[in-house]
Design goal:
Layout lengths: L2 H5 L3 H23 L7 H22 L1
Helix pairs in contact: 2-3
Length: 63
Amino acid sequence: MKKNELKKLTKDEAIKHIDKLKKDLFNFRFQRVNAQITDPSRIGQSKKTIARLKTLLRGKLNA
């Protein structure tokens, strides 16, 4: 997701999105072990998006 799209999310939407991405990472691990993953770069993208969302949530909590 783009940075602008992430900023528009509410706190609850961001938390739901983080949970979804964590489930995706869990599934990516199994796909990588079984050599079924088609796009390995999605693992890194998911991790970065989770970090961005957590950073935005932290900023919203402090504001």
